[in-house]
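Dear V.,

Thank you for sending over the compound details. I've combined the ligand you provided, zinc ion, with the protein sequence from our construct and run the structure prediction for the complex. I'm sharing the raw inputs here so there's no ambiguity about protonation or stereochemistry in the SMILES, which I know was a concern on your side last time.
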Amino acid sequence: MTTHLRGPVTIERIVELDDWPFDVREMFPAHPGAGRISLAIATHLVRTPDRTVLVDAGNGDGRHRPGLPAHHLLDAGYAARLAERVAPEEIDVVVCSHLHPDHCGGLTTGDGRPAFPRARHLVAWAELAWLGAVHRSAPRAGAAEGLARTWCDSVAPVLDAGLVEPVDGDDVDLGHGVWVRTAPGHTPGHLVVEIGPPGAPEAVISGDVLHHPLQFDDLALAQAGDADPAGAARTRHDLCERLARSGGLLLPSHFGPGHVHRASRGFGYRPVGC
Ligand SMILES: [Zn+2]
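Below is the predicted structure of the protein with zinc ion bound, written out as structure tokens.
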């Protein structure tokens, strides 16, 4: 799906996986229901008159993550699908919403080289500090071991190549109304990309601020991986307020695009075709 905004900017949604199943309580431990839910993994390509920007890089194929079974040895063909839209060396900027493996695994090729060799990679300092510390703690099993592997095979090669430009909390202006802004809570340095006037976005590429539309019923519903559940809930609320006011498009990583509106209890969500 390609979204054309009022100005010269377009956004393409590139799906890595369209059915990534989870038990609802595995994803949202406090959810009152039971059963299975399905997530997607999607990244976004933003084209302005002078820059091609990739927001997140997906999980990547063949990533060895035995401690993180949902991320282990996926084979979804994302890199080839992206290459149908844009050559990797044509990407000028990569924005990493955060450094969980389903967002940064695709930063490198299968043989460990940076996948986007010309791009400046915008990553929050707080993310680099957090994942670097996990790696240095040398975990030997479980999720932490999977995260340490993510540092080694997906982040360190890009850092070593001098391609990472850390973001320290200030907004980053990519031109033509495209801004990188901090949206902490799910992880310490989570970033979103907003397109449009400040405070009244036409579109927000929101990473993991929200994981599934059922969170609109209760914006306080924490996802299992939220590092700071109260902060994540505040960020979800701020984002929904802004989008309900502006009528802008929400483009999340794990479910389809749509519009946020005020509802009797908080907010509702109207998906658009994808
Ligand atoms: Zn994610």
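A first observation: The domain at 2-13+41-167 is CATH 3.60.15.10 (Metallo-beta-lactamase; Chain A).

Warm regards,
I. M.
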